[in-house]
Amino acid sequence: MLKTWRRFISATAGGLLLFTVLSSVQAGPADAAAAAAVQGPEEDVFRIVALGDSITAGYEPGMTDPGVKPYGYAERLLEQGWYHGRSELSNYGILGLKTAGLLQYTGAIKDGTAVTAEAIQPGLPDPRIAQFAALTPQIRTELAAADLITITIGGNDVSSLFLNYKTLADGEFASQLAERLAEYSSNVTAVLGNIRAVNPLATIILADQYQPAPRIALGASYDKLMAAAAQFTIAADNIAATLNQAGAPVKVAHVAAKFAGVEGSLTHIIGAGAADFHPTQLGYERIAAVFSELQWGAYRTPAVTALTSEAAPMSIVVKGTELNTPNKPILKNGQNFLALKDILNAVGATGKWDNHTASATVIYGGRTVVITIGSKTIKVNGADVAIDTPAFLQKVGKEDKTYLPLAALATGLGFDVNYSSKLRTAFINP
Predict the structure, then answer these.
(1) Reduced to 3 states, what is the DSSP secondary structure of residue 410?
(2) CA–CA dist 85, 319 (Å, integer)
(3) Which of 351, 349, 314, 307 is nearest to 329 (CA)?
(4) Angle at 396 between CA 347 and CA 337, to 5 degrees
């Protein structure tokens, strides 16, 4: 599955003024470099599939350099999943996609047949669209296994209307808005039908459309466009109410309310050109928080200390609990080390220290890992495994504490380890 891409090309002018977020299954990694990853049983992984437009893709102006990776709401949602267990993300956000295009795309996914880019939507600006079109059989498999499916869609349907609002009389604006709303409701309802045909039980979260321009930029027209956005909220609520069922929830993420009155700090409309309305990093975080609160009841962030200094050790989250012990993690040669006792307590493992061999034995879930002070190898169930940096003894007060390499130990015990460079946090899940 596609988890990241190496090159992100900007969308065409006239980006999203409003956008819809539809979510139902969660999985996958974001702009995060995995310190290590050991896949566990299939049923233990929470899978997120993100479908939709450039909001799903995490687009921001200027993201055209090779190697730049997006960090949007979907990637943040993945990090939130790591707080709750093993999680994966498949992100298929397509730049420039409209609701009609998403309907064609999900139809092909439902059928499990590869399609051409033109069959999805003519003239899409996304450089990856041919690859995405060819992947529909694989995406169908991922969609069927998803626990949460997210979609942002709709902004490209109404962008021309909102960009030209000044040239339209109120009656003409209202008439065209009604047409776009009817098309939006029809297409999104059909999109959800395609998704339900593939996965009848995944959670679906449909977000409403926010109005991105601040009052200072719109003047007297601000209230008019806010009222139009409110109609999209009503449409999203109606779609969800029609399709929501016990055991197969369809929820609405009311993103618009989080942007109202603070659009200038949450979108790129100020200083980024009059035609670009994509979220800022703060905007993407606000969107992710709405999704996360609906899915898990909260949006979590690591301790502030982990974010204030590049020299400080990262935050460590084990089975959803952030470690906070007197024996702080130690950063050495680019790797984090934890005191033996803290590791045992955090993961619920058993262990012992052998003074004669200067080694620690850790036992968990049928695996035995032996780590020797100063050794460039560890033993996993008797087999030697090379590691980059050996364990060491650290003086803490009057005691010598045994510090073990976190990534090597977690991998040896069969844990899933993911690292978020943005949060400077390692997530460890059995």
Answers:
(1) helix
(2) 6
(3) 314
(4) 40
C-alpha distance across the termini of the chain, in Å: 22
Share of the chain above pLDDT 90, in %: 57
Q: How far is CA 279 from CA 58, 218, 221, 253, 298, in A?
A: 8, 18, 21, 16, 21
**Radius of gyration in angstroms for the set of CA atoms belonging to the chain, rounded to a whole number:** 24
**DSSP per-residue codes, 219-272:** GGGHHHHHHHHHHHHHHHHHHHHHH-BTTB-EEEE-HHHHHTT-HHHHBSTTTS
Q: Which of the 8 DSSP states describes residue 177?
A: H
Q: How much is the pLDDT for 18?
A: 31
In the predicted structure, residue 74 carries a pLDDT above the cut 50: yes
- Collapsed DSSP state (helix, strand, coil) of residue 20: strand
Angle at 253 between CA 247 and CA 295, to 5 degrees: 50
Q: Judge whether residue 363 has pLDDT over 80.
A: yes
Compute the distance between CA of residue 89 and CA of residue 73 in angstroms, rounded to an integer: 12
Entry pTM: 0.84
CA distance 349 to 412: 13
H/E stretch holding 368: strand 367-372
Q: Go through the domains of the chain in sequence order and give each one's CATH number.
A: 20-296 (3.40.50.1110), 306-429 (3.30.457.10)
Angle at 191 between CA 29 and CA 123, to 5 degrees: 80
Residue 323: phi and psi, rounded to 5, are: -70, 135
Residue 247 has pLDDT above 80, yes or no: yes
Q: Are 79 and 315 in contact (CB under 8 A)?
A: no
HSE-CB at 406 with a 13 A cutoff on CA atoms is 35
